[in-house]
Specification:
Elements: E1 3-5, H1 15-21, E2 30-32, H2 40-45, H3 51-63, H4 69-79, E3 86-90, E4 93-97, H5 107-121, E5 129-134, H6 138-147, E6 153-160, H7 166-173, E7 179-185, H8 188-200, H9 202-207, E8 209-212, H10 218-235, E9 242-247, H11 252-262, E10 269-274, H12 279-286, H13 310-316, H14 321-327, E11 328-332, H15 335-349, H16 355-370, E12 375-380, H17 388-395, H18 403-409, E13 416-419, H19 422-430
Parallel strand pairs: 4-12, 5-6, 5-8, 6-7, 7-13, 9-10, 9-12, 10-11
Antiparallel strand pairs: 1-2, 3-4
This protein binds pyridoxal-5'-phosphate (PLP).
Length: 431
């Protein structure tokens, strides 16, 4: 399969180039040239398959011409070696829990699959590949753990000193091996700027192979579509009129869901659930897309003022606002509403939400109230223990630290400290 840039100013390329480059040379995002539905036969059998089997079937639909099926199957099974249960919260409403992986957030899925694909495509290369990633918290840990000990690849995680939680920090500064944590005396924006400059520095790129692991990489997006099939399979054969609410920031996760729908997965309707960074809900209502500076909220992984994957959704619907709005509606949630939702669902349903999942829950619950024949699930994107302070403050009850997070707590932090300037990063990379 060939991939085209959403900007249409650079040539179509192979999967290998898509995975290694991340971004197209014209700064567009890569999308498959065409998306054809899966067979009716697959949808009949899907209900009897387990998660890795479903994932492998959907993966081979896209990748069978580019990767030998045996290799692909190994990569899929490596990626999905943790459960993704559909948990009933109340009548007709379920949580698809994506937080049972290594770093307990849904980003584990994309980061692991990207690591597998990059490892595969660079296995016979002499020169080492260097993955650079700037993080404000969760992306860094998912990427570092996804690439941990992948041969031939070195990872540099840049993060703002003192601006992420100690637990987040431990998840990628204690690993060692091929993971280097770089503590920058500056802000997240400084880190991002340093990484971006690295990709455009000619001298650096002559000396070493650099690539990015942020969510614009197609290899992070594709595997996220697999778990929507698994969610529908777990709803059972008799579920009809399924609606799915997705807590959204950069709109990669929901874009994956819409790709699954394009493959004919029977999800009737999507809800793009955001915090008060409401750029896409506004677009869905009014038809114009107006990026703005992001506003800090307690669902901080979704504090995005210019969602990078939105262009992919436009591409999928040929730019038609009418077509997008027919499949997707928006929902906006304030900090107060997030807190009230965590509190209420904890008390009445005995289900503990994290601040991001709370937005998804509230969006879906509001929708199902108005649509008594529908049922559905929301994506629970992170474990509540990742946002202990906010959640404990609301419920008044301490959250026990899950084993997956606790195992980082004892590790020794190892970092390299840098000034917030590109030249010190360059020096570090060259040395
Ligand atoms: C990244 C993230 C999101 C937002 O996902 P997008 O794909 O950027 O829309 C939501 N919740 C959590 C916990 C996240 O880490």
């Amino acid at each position: 399969m060939r991939y085209v840039s959403t900007n249409r100013n650079s040539p179509a390329v192979s999967l290998r180039d898509v995975v290694i480059r991340g971004l197209a040379p014209d700064s567009g995002l890569y999308m498959p040239e065409s998306i054809t539905p899966l067979s009716e036969n697959f949808f009949r059998q899907m209900h009897d398959m387990d998660l890795p089997e479903i994932a492998f079937n959907v993966a081979s639909h896209f990748l069978k011409d580019d990767i030998p099926l045996g290799e692909l199957q190994k990569m899929v099974y490596e990626t999905f070696d943790f459960p993704i249960p559909l948990v009933p919260v109340q009548s007709r409403l379920y949580a698809l829990e994506l937080f049972h992986g290594t770093t307990m957030a849904f980003k584990d899925v994309g980061a692991r699959f990207l690591a597998q694909l990059l490892g595969y495509f660079t296995q016979n290369e002499q020169q080492e590949l260097n993955v650079l990633v700037a993080t404000s918290g969760d992306t860094g840990s998912a990427v570092a753990n996804g690439f941990y000990k992948v041969p031939g690849i070195k990872v540099f995680v840049l993060y703002p000193k003192g601006l992420i939680s100690p637990l987040q920090e431990k998840q990628f500064t204690t690993l060692g091996e091929n993971i280097t944590a770089v503590e920058v005396n500056g802000t997240f924006d400084d880190c991002q700027r340093m990484v971006k400059t690295a990709f455009t520095d000619k001298e650096l790129n002559r000396q070493m192979k650099l690539t990015s692991a942020n969510s614009i990489n197609w290899a992070r997006l594709l595997p996220q579509s697999f778990y929507y099939f698994w969610g529908v399979a777990q709803m059972g054969r008799n579920a009809t009129d399924i609606t799915c609410a997705v807590p959204s920031g950069n709109f990669g996760n929901i874009c994956s869901g819409l790709i699954a729908k394009r493959l004919n997965l029977p999800i009737h309707h999507f809800i793009a659930a955001t915090n008060i960074n409401d750029i896409v809900p506004k677009y869905l209502k009014e038809g114009s897309f107006q990026p703005k500076p992001s506003i800090a909220t307690i669902a901080n992984a979704m504090d995005v003022g210019n969602p990078s994957n939105f262009v992919r959704i436009l591409e999928l619907y040929h730019g038609s606002h009418k077509a997008i709005a027919a499949d997707v509606e928006g929902f906006v949630c304030t900090n107060e509403e997030i807190r009230a939702t965590i509190q209420e669902v904890n008390q009445q349903r005995k289900y503990l939400l994290d601040p991001h999942g709370a937005i998804g829950y509230r969006a879906l619950n509001t929708y199902l109230d108005k649509h008594p024949k529908s049922s559905g699930f929301f994506i629970e994107t992170a474990h509540p223990a990742k946002f202990t302070e906010t959640v404990e403050q609301v419920t008044g009850t301490p959250i026990p630290l899950p084993a997956n997070l606790a195992r980082f707590a004892g590790g020794v932090k190892q970092t390299i400290e840098l000034k917030a300037e590109f030249n010190s990063l360059k020096k570090l990379l060259i040395e």
